[in-house]
Design a protein that fits this description.
Chain A: Its cofactor is Fe(2+). The complex is a heterodimer of chains A (about 170) and B (about 140). Chain A contains two helices and six strands, in the order αβββββαβ. Chain A has a single domain, classed as Peptide deformylase (Peptide Deformylase). By secondary structure, chain A is α+β, with helices and mostly antiparallel strands. Chain B starts with a strand and ends in a 6-residue tail after the last strand. Chain B is globular and about 50 Å long. With about 140 residues, chain B is α+β, with helices and mostly antiparallel strands. Chain B contains four helices and six strands, in the order E-E-H-H-E-H-E-E-H-E. Chain B folds into two domains: about 45 residues, no CATH class; about 80 residues, 2-Layer Sandwich (Alpha-Beta Plaits). Chain B has a four-stranded antiparallel beta sheet, covered by helices on one side. Classes of the chains: A alpha+beta (about 170), B alpha+beta (about 140). The interface between A and B is medium-sized, with 24 and 23 residues.
Chain lengths: ~170, ~140
């Protein structure tokens, strides 16, 4: 388990590096990411840059959120890639790396994501909707050095966080 | 409306027959600091906007001069900030601004200047077209 970095931090603005999902150091990083996610109350997803690793790894568990419909389970994906995005809608987001702020962000509510499982390297495809789709897209942005703040649609869409609802 | 240093601050646009001095007289209370002024509503708020709508995000470590530096870059190209929201959360300063640009602005060149200014402030800047409302 590692500490979650808070913005501003250069790693949260950097593009993360592709990984070999079978590499032991990558498997260890995936375990760290999952352990950190499990310890973060109110957070449904994390990306490796948030724990100080500039690697293309994301972890999520949308079952932690009441607005979830699809649920792929508790999962870590290496080199995740968005293959399809449809049905865009606005929703409120927060982030474990951005304390105290939320914003309304427009994202696809139905997505297809390809990636690999750390360890075996098995290729997997995730079909996600609703909150899980939003959570995965939020983590994918972290791999490209973007925060949800970079997708706020206007000045009136930034809010102080009143309760924990992190993506 | 927002909270500034524990005080409520708000700005209201109203239409009516009273001049600003009379309005101030009627609003006066000992607990509130109030100022009033007349605006040329027809010119500023009723004309159709003819420019290009963009949204600017700036986030980075808090430091003096961020708004000044960014607004100077926008003003050099005739950009008009029509809405703005800023928040400080720990060391993180966040600014979101609605910006209207003249139609003939070289947006790519403006984005490069904004990025350079952001880098000089250790801040990240994104500048993107307003997404159309889908009703």
């Amino acid at each position: 388990m590692r500490a979650v970095l808070g913005a501003p931090h250069p790693l949260l603005s950097a593009v993360a590096e592709p990984v070999d999902p079978t590499e032991p150091t990558v498997v260890s990083a995936a375990e760290d990411l999952l352990a950190t996610l499990r310890a973060e109350r109110g957070t449904a997803g994390l990306a490796a840059p948030q724990i100080g690793l500039s690697l293309r790894l994301i972890a999520f568990d949308a079952g932690r959120h009441p607005r979830s419909r699809s649920w792929a389970g508790e999962l870590v994906l290496a080199n995740p890639r968005l293959a399809r995005a449809a049905h865009w809608d606005e929703g409120r987001e927060g982030c474990a790396s951005v304390e105290g702020l939320t914003a309304d962000v427009r994202r696809a509510t139905r997505i297809t994501v390809h990636g690999h499982l750390p360890g075996s390297g098995e290729a997997v495809t995730i079909e996600a909707d609703a909150f899980e789709a939003r959570c995965i897209q939020h983590q994918l942005d972290h791999l490209d050095g973007l925060l949800f703040l970079d997708r706020v649609p206007g000045a009136l869409s930034l809010h102080r966080r009143l309760h924990s609802c992190g993506a | 409306m927002t909270l500034l240093g524990g005080h409520i601050a708000m700005m209201l646009l109203v239409a009516g027959e009273l001049d600003s001095a009379e309005l101030l007289k009627r609003l006066g209370t000992p607990d509130l600091v109030i100022s009033t002024s007349a605006v040329e509503a027809r010119r500023h708020f009723c004309d159709e906007g003819g420019g290009l709508g963009y949204v600017l995000t700036v986030h980075g470590p808090d430091r003096p001069g961020i708004i000044s530096a960014i607004s100077a870059v926008l003003a050099d190209d005739g950009g008009n900030i029509t809405g703005m929201s800023s928040r400080l959360s720990g060391r993180l300063y966040v600014l979101i601004a609605d910006v209207e640009l003249p139609k003939d602005v070289d947006v790519a060149a403006l984005m490069r200047r904004l990025a350079a200014t952001g880098a000089s402030l250790d801040s990240d800047i994104t500048f993107r077209p307003v997404e159309p409302e889908l009703l």
